[in-house]
């Protein structure tokens, strides 16, 4: 993965001083190559208020909207104690398996908050070719992924519980596991959950041909 980083001047500085700083080398965009164990997907900020019926609004977001973080063009601001940076990300390789970690939890000095936003995602045929750098796309014959496992967090951060949805490859059926309980589940029900961690498997050539037959 390529990570492009640009340091930002302090927002309280006068405009002229900001313009001068942006000419310095340390404020120019830098690129580094980095390996990754999983991809962190950022959720949009959840609404703080109830709707007119006094019910909490649970927003929804498409998977491809939060995957845009890795398209090489989308910039996001990252803040540290002393400095601010703009970063953008671009994939240079797609492994046989991909792990998505949907960032639901944020921690401050007092407590942990959970974002309940529902991510709308298909469980098959997720093509990630557009997130690859153009010069490496030709080296990737297969860029389509299918979901094989989905870990869900239910409830509050401190009192919640976990469930896992697992695809049985031999039968093509989905099962839900929680503690010692195992039940079958319809695929369309999986997409309604508060997905937290997902495992995706790249479709190989023979699998692609079978799907298209």
UniProtKB/TrEMBL annotation:
Q: Which residues form the USP domain?
A: 1-203
What GO molecular function terms would the record report?
cysteine-type deubiquitinase activity
What are the alphabetically sorted keywords of the record? Hydrolase
InterPro entries per UniProt: Papain-like_cys_pep_sf, Peptidase_C19_UCH, Ub_carboxyl-term_hydrolase, USP
Q: Per its UniProt record, what PROSITE patterns does this chain match?
A: USP_3
Does the keyword Iron-sulfur belong to this entry? Answer: no
What's its catalytic activity? Thiol-dependent hydrolysis of ester, thioester, amide, peptide and isopeptide bonds formed by the C-terminal Gly of ubiquitin (a 76-residue protein attached to proteins as an intracellular targeting signal)
Q: Could you tell me which Pfam families the record lists for this protein?
A: UCH
Where would one find the signal peptide in this protein? Answer: none
Q: Does the keyword Transport apply?
A: no
Q: Which GO terms describe its biological process?
A: protein deubiquitination
Q: What class of enzyme is it?
A: hydrolase
Q: What is its EC number?
A: 3.4.19.12
Domain of life, source organism = Eukaryota
Classification via PANTHER family: U4_U6.U5 TRI-SNRNP-ASSOCIATED PROTEIN 2, UBIQUITIN CARBOXYL-TERMINAL HYDROLASE
Q: What is this protein called?
A: ubiquitinyl hydrolase 1
Q: Which organism is it from?
A: Podargus strigoides
